Every structure is written in structure tokens, then in C-alpha cells.
Amino acid sequence: MAHGRAASELPPCCAACELYEKDAPAQARHCLLIAHPTLENRRHLLTMPCNVEELLERRFRSHGPDVARDALVSWLEPAWDPEILRASFGNAPLDARLWLTSWPYLYLGRNAVRRRFRDSREQPWSEPPERPDPDEDDPTVPGRVLRALETVRAVDPVGYTMVVELMRGDFEVAAWRASLGCSDATVTDRKYLAIYRYSVLFFEVLESLDPEGRAALAARRFSPGDPGDGEALKALRTSLRRPALGLADFRDLYRRAASASLAALAQTDALGEESMGRFDGAFRRVLRIAEPGPR
Predict the structure, then answer these.
(1) What pLDDT does residue 7 have?
(2) CA 20, CA 17: separation in Å to the nearest integer?
């Protein structure tokens, strides 16, 4: 369940809890232990009636008890700065409903789930990529994940939901085919376009492009409503203050910027060559840019 999609009804354990801030305005009510996640408060939360251990077991029931235990260990990680942890919650409810959102997977259980897949030689290749292992201790990563996801949601709500489901391991082509009323191929293309957007945003690729190319790519692929070339050209003319810019020039700017973004994603400080070996063809297809010629 994605952030903001948890059940709206307050759980009974919170309603009866003396550490739930009931007197605050409706939108600001919260569990004091979650809103101030010091190590002491995180430990204290495990003794409360909401029973975090059971909620984590329920959250990761499809992955086995080992993943739930690893998630609990991550929750109690002493090195986790409370302010960074608090920021990672985003718009998730600050009460027992937190454990039913996407947050536990994104920040507590994802690495354990991946280890389980690696150990069983069932690597989930369709999941959204992220930084290599050496950067997992980077304290900026949680905030960047949230910012990337929120931007994808603003641009493409369907793609955002697909990315979250892929991260959780819940993505099912058949369910999306029925929901969208389209073919498997269309579902797959929407998935890869969402992964591309998330990757570009997470690795801050747009900032590495030349200004005109960045504006063209943003107008075509990072604007709400998935505008076509004509609409993107109008927006680009306005942002660049070039009212005479032609469609052919726009398409050339877009193709060069899109190709440059794939090259940036192939760098070692982004997805890397191995991952892009799997994604490059799919990304080029959904971006509608030609395959690179022979070198």
C-alpha cells in the first residue's frame, strides 16, 4: 500500500493510547513515539499495544519470517539519525497505519527481500533500480527516494503506483491489463517508462544535461499528462523564450537529451553498464529514440 493509501480509520490501539496526540488538529495527530523516532522511542514502541513485530510479520508475510526479523533489526539501527528517519516517512500516517504503507518495504525490508531473491537465484529483474551497495549507507538516499517517487507521482500517477508495486514485489501485468484495458505490451511499456523516470530523478540525471536538452526532455517526459511533441514544443518555446523554435529542432534536442540521459544512467555512479545492458533497449523503445548505431 503506497503512502497516503492506508485506511483512513484510526486503529483502536492508537485511539486508546496515551502516547497518541489526540488533541492536535485532525491532520496533525500522531503517535509521539513515531513522530520523534529516537532510538529510545523506537525501542519503547515495541512494547506498545500496536504490536509492531506482528504488524511487520503481516507486512512481509509473503517474504517469510526472516525478512520481518531483518526489518525489525533495521528499525532498531542505532546509527539511524532521528531527523532523517522522520523525513523518510513523507506523507505516511504517523501511527500504527505506517506499517501497512510502502514505507516498511522501502526503508526496512528491501535489502532483506533482495538477499532472499539472490540466495534463491530468483533475482527480480523487473524491479526499479537504485544505487549500488556501497552507497546504501548514504544518509541522503531515503530523501532522494521519496523525492523521486513524489515527482513521478506528480507526472504519472499510474507509473508511480507501478514503481511502488515493483518495489514491493506486487506488480502483476494481468492486473494492470484488466485495470487499464490495454495489452500486455502497453502495460510493459508504461512500466519501463515509469522506471526510466524514477531512475533519472533518483540519480539526478536531468541536472547533468545541457540546459536546452534538459528543458526539451523535461517538457516531453517529465511533465504531467504525458504531452505529445506538439504540446511539449509549446511548453519548450515558453521556457526557452524561443517562440520560433521548430518541431524538427525540438525533436533533435529531445533525442540528444534522451540519449545523453541513458549514457548518464550507464555510468558507475548511477545504474552502471550491467544494469543498462538490461534496460537500454526498453528505455529507448518507450522514449521512441533510435537504437545507437555501430561503433
Answers:
(1) 44
(2) 6
